[in-house]
Design goal:
Layout: H1 2-17, E1 20-30, E2 35-43, E3 46-54, H2 64-76, E4 84-88, E5 98-102, H3 110-115, H4 119-138, H5 151-162, H6 167-178, E6 186-189, E7 198-201, E8 204-208, E9 215-218, H7 219-225, H8 247-258, H9 264-290, H10 297-303, H11 306-317
Antiparallel strand pairs: 1-2, 2-3, 3-5, 4-5, 6-9, 7-8
Helix pairs in contact: 4-8, 5-9, 6-9, 6-11, 7-9, 9-10, 9-11
């Protein structure tokens, strides 16, 4: 298969780089929505390390062309993202829609990243994450086909589709619906901005990856998702923003980078929504195992985290949570 894919890649890259030879094609990950490959393109001007992302289209994830356009808009606004060479929603060339970008050197495994940072490194990285989000939110979202989903309603529907719920989830959905803050301006949002979707090198944040959930929404969605417990990877609550620093420090850094104020009450509402979202995802992953769709100890283990998210939701709704 890899030889066939390599030859097809050479045809795809020819209009961009000229005649090329694809070498060292290796799969990196195989998730539910995207498969990632690393390879080298040898051409007249030298050798270039590239990344291929492929995945069938669906009604949840952005198409490859949209994902590429959103990254290009974010890059124009100053966000660190990989340079895109080409993208196509058609499966004709490679068997699935695809996106090809430059490889970015660095680390992506969060526990290694956090172990390698001292206090100064964490502080620098936190500021870089805030600045990257501010740049993403400055980007022009118009005219590229982005949708504007209702986060709370969408996750309500996802839970209903499973056909199972918990008392905590039900109470949270109702409380959140009753207490929804006034809407803020709609911006380009990443949709999955978290430590696991960043590349980090010796200078800090090198690139923001995995744009398949990008859409138009409120900036609070990205800010809150970065601060849920799951993306702290065991770091204490005092490092509630991605395991790097306090939530308040993160919000202040974002305010400075974006030149806009962050309503703390609105942020808390969105942080509760983000935690509830993670809880529904955990329940969905468990259902994949329990239903027999995909028997997996990992999926079953993720399902056990539903109770953890219930605790966090109740804590947030009672005025607790990370600071």
């Amino acid at each position: 298969m890899s030889d066939t894919l390599a030859r097809a890649l050479e045809q795809v890259l020819a209009p961009v780089l000229g005649e090329v030879s694809v070498e060292d094609l290796q799969p990196l990950t195989g998730g539910a929505s995207r498969i990632t490959w690393a390879f080298t393109a040898a051409h007249a001007d030298g050798r270039r390390a590239l990344i291929l992302r492929t995945g069938a289209g669906d009604d949840i994830h952005a198409g490859m062309e949209l994902e590429a356009l959103a990254q290009q808009r974010a890059a124009a606004a100053g966000a660190p993202v990989p340079h895109i060479l080409t993208a196509d929603n058609s499966p004709a060339a490679l068997g699935n829609p695809y996106l090809i970008c430059d490889a970015v050197a660095g680390e992506t495994i969060v526990r290694r990243i956090l172990r390698g940072l001292d206090d100064a490194g964490r502080s620098r990285m936190l500021g870089q994450c805030a600045a990257a989000l501010a740049a993403i939110h400055r980007a022009d979202p118009d005219g590229i086909g982005l949708t504007a989903p209702d986060d709370l309603a969408d996750w309500r529907s996802r839970l209903d589709e499973i056909g199972d719920t918990t008392a905590t989830f039900e109470w949270a959905f109702r409380r959140l619906a009753d207490r929804r803050p006034d809407p803020s301006p709609m911006r380009l949002v990443h949709g999955d901005f978290r430590m696991g979707n960043l590349i980090v090198d010796g200078s800090g944040l090198a690139a923001v990856l995995d744009w398949e959930l990008t859409h138009i929404g409120e900036v609070y969605e990205d800010l809150a998702w970065f601060c849920i417990r799951a993306w702290r990877f065991g770091a204490p609550e005092t490092l509630g923003a991605g395991g790097l620093g306090s939530v308040e420090t993160f919000l202040q850094a974002y305010e400075q980078a974006s030149g806009t104020a962050v309503d703390r009450d609105a942020f808390r509402w969105w942080l509760t929504v983000a935690t509830l979202r993670w809880g529904v995802i955990c329940r969905h992953q468990a259902e994949r195992h329990l239903s027999g769709e995909q028997r997996s100890v990992e999926l079953a283990a993720i399902g056990r985290r539903v109770s953890e998210t219930e605790w966090d939701i109740l804590d947030l709704l009672s005025g607790g949570g990370p600071r």
